[in-house]
Amino acid sequence: MTELEIPQPNETVTEQELRTLAAFLFNLIEAQITRADTKAGLVIAADSVFITGALFQARHGFILHVFNPNAALLERGVSVLMILFFAALLASMVYALRAARPALTVKGGGETIFFFNKIAQYSHQEFLDVFSKQSPSQFHSALLTEVYNTARIANEKFARIRYSIDYLIVSVVLWMLIQLLLALSG
User: Fold this and answer.
1) Tens digits of per-residue pLDDT, 90-133?
2) FRET partner for 141 with CA separation of 20 to 30 A, picked from 45, 54, 102, 184?
3) Residue 112 and residue 174: Cα distance in Å, rounded?
4) What's the whole-model pTM score?
5) How far is it, in rounded angstroms, from Cα 105 to Cα 102?
């Protein structure tokens, strides 16, 4: 068995092979979750920069022009775009924060002996006992279930990041449109 092979349910595996599989699974989980969390952090940083710039510009009262019947059509248009800009940034930030938020429950596949939340429920000795009493078939099932669970968690995180980036792109387009309108009116 190589490092990437998962034993068949009836196949006899050595303790070393089981440790190798456990380490591979741990690295797989860490890489997927870390990648999604890194993207979430980058989007949050970008959102923060845009919010800061927008607040600087919003202090001139552009947003309030939408309620002023005496304001020029261009000023009212910029106000509406500014409100949409802030809404898109807020949506981007919310999705990025939801992606970065850790998932402590498992949906679908169930908890296994490899799930960190399940492990933390045991005392150290209980975990060692439960882990060492697993048959190869139980390890096989637990590993495949954990791979499935990890894929679901990563998929959910990446979907949230995708929505967050989509809203960030909308924000950038709105920001450019606002800047263009302000330059034309100035």
Assistant:
1) 999 999 999 998 776 666 667 787 777 788 888 999 988 988 88
2) 102
3) 46
4) 0.75
5) 9
Write the CB contacts of 114 (distance below 8 Å, at least 6 apart in sequence): 22, 25, 26, 142, 143, 146
CA distance 169 to 186: 26
The answer as to whether 10 is a domain residue is no
Is the residue at 9 inside a domain? no
In Å, how far from its chain's centre is CA 3?
28
Residue range of the domain that includes 27: 15-185
CA distance 90 to 51: 9
Domain membership flag for residue 161: yes
pLDDT > 60? residue 1 = no
How many Cβ atoms from other residues are within 10 Å of residue 181's Cβ? Answer: 15
Q: What CA–CA distance (Å, rounded) separates 29 from 150? A: 6
Which pair of structure tokens corresponds to residue 10? 């009836």
Domain count, the chain: 1
CA distances from residue 12 to 25, 139, 142 in whole angstroms, order as listed = 19, 11, 16
